[in-house]
Amino acid sequence: VGGEASLPAPARLRGFDRRASSAGEADLGQPDSRYFAPISPTDHRDFSLPPDVAFFCQPEGCLALGRRRRTGVRDSSTFVFTLTEKDSGLVRYGICLNFYRTIDKRWVAAEETVWSVLTGLHPDCSSAMILRDVREIETWILRLLSAPVPVPGRTKLQLTVLPESDYPPLLFALPDRSRLSLADFPLHLPLELLGVDTCLQVLTCILLENKVLIQSRDENALTMSVLAFVAMLYPMQYMFPVIPLLPTCMASAEQLLLAPTPYIIGVPASFLLYKKNFCLPSDVWLVDLDANKVGVR
Predict the structure, then answer these.
(1) 16: which of 22, 62, 120, 176 fits an S-S bond (Cβ 3.0–4.6 Å)?
(2) Can you give the residue range of the structural domain that contains 225?
């Protein structure tokens, strides 16, 4: 994708509401939606980005560690979440990448970097070199978003993100419409995590229109497994609510588990631990991807 792109002010993902006790223990913090600023200052005409997206990007909340506790560098994590419009039932997918960096407050206050500009620590950057790097990042994001969709069975899209000597081009194509529908999610993942017998037991619960709650510490495996179970029902279509990831830190999120209709909902492993005053209904089947267990509580 060639050509120049003109972008608005730098994208900012500035932070969260971090809370820590005086004893140095880690508490569950609430993501602050005010600190999420999209790349474009205006929403798409067909969809406005809701402020609750902050909870889905940090489903287990934010942890602030006191001086007495130190942790090593944590690995990055990528997972999928969905946003469903109440009126139209239209489902939109989001992809979140979380990564961690150690920040020295003295260094942050004194030095401007690309990272400090993107996170909003230095919104009024004066360095032309840093602004050029930020603009280049935003340009590539816009090019990815502006890439045309290939015609099924006829055309393909070859997208060069980096020099071909460093990274091969990305190839996008869609099969002919007469073929079976595509499964965008790894169908093998639930089979690997649960085994064939347990996986069939979960599918049986879904087909019998039971309420199914799936939990895991791995948010990516959790969301992919929920969507894979739905895809396995083909050619049948699941007509009840599906929530691949229900945030722990969202207020009163546990009330959704009291719905009278069947559902498939994925929650982090910490969800039920933090909802201490909540009793899971006896008609809900709990699937633990980490322990390979299925049952009712």
Answers:
(1) 62
(2) 188-296
